[in-house]
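Example S7 (structure tokens).
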């Protein structure tokens, strides 16, 4: 039986607006695949006779396989924001791999995928068009997930012990907002800095510093969306920035707008 997961609380930009434009759902993977798959996700929209909507997210440090009619792909980590134009009526179905967990399938440094997309059949022996037909001939997620899992189970690699180790590090970064530097991770996990960086480049596709900054920016975006007024100088210091200007520069480089301009777009 398919088990539903709660809605995303971070990562979706302008979340309140996004929820009005499309239906988001997430589901746990079966026990056989849970080691590798964080969850499945779907987005459905019906904007017929309505203006298109540009949905944007701040991606997590994960690889996704996204099934989209005629355009299904493997997505490496996007360092900036990820955008997708919703128009007409449609849906997409995604597989979110746990950080580092795509490496055993790919069998190459995952950093080769960062900022790029790849055809699914470049990694898996599969007729993508036929798989798309099977997935999209039903509207029900309860029917789509078994189709995807049946395919994935034919490709399960051996469990790599580096994956739970990497996820324990990333979980610490995600849950402990006091973690603001790579040096803290080095001390907490008793690992050499260079070894940590090599591990992340090979398995995750981005540096540990990028992961720390991304999760802290998730917190910033969430605070901005939930507040009418934000003390950006105080927020910058709270996030470990030495000055407000550096924080604003990082935010703008990632989101595309300064914090104050972004605040205005969320209301």
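Recovered sequence:
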């Amino acid at each position: 039986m398919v088990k539903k997961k709660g809605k995303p609380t971070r990562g979706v930009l302008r979340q309140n607006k996004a929820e009005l434009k499309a239906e988001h759902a997430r589901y746990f993977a079966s026990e056989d695949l849970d080691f590798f798959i964080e969850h499945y996700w779907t987005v459905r929209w019906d904007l017929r006779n309505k203006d298109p909507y540009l949905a944007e997210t701040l991606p997590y440090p994960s690889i996704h396989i996204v099934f989209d009619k005629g355009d299904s792909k493997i997505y490496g980590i996007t360092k900036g924001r990820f955008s997708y134009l919703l128009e007409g009526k449609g849906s997409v179905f995604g597989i979110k791999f746990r950080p580092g967990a795509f490496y055993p399938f790919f069998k190459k440094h995952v950093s080769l995928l960062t900022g790029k997309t790849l055809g699914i059949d470049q990694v898996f022996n599969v007729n993508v068009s036929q798989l798309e037909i099977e997935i999209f001939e039903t509207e029900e997620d309860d029917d789509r997930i078994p189709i995807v899992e049946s395919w994935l189970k034919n490709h399960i690699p051996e469990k790599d012990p580096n994956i739970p180790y990497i996820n324990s590090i990333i979980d610490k970064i995600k849950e402990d907002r006091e973690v603001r530097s790579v040096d803290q991770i080095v001390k907490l996990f008793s690992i050499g800095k260079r070894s940590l960086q090599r591990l992340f480049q090979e398995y995750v596709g981005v540096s540990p510093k990028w992961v720390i900054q991304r999760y802290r920016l998730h917190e910033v975006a969430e605070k901005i969306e939930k507040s009418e007024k934000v003390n950006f100088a105080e927020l910058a210091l709270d996030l470990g920035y030495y000055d407000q200007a550096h924080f604003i520069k990082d935010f703008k480089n990632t989101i595309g707008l300064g914090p104050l301009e972004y605040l205005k777009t969320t209301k």
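Notes on this example. The longest helix spans residues 208-226.
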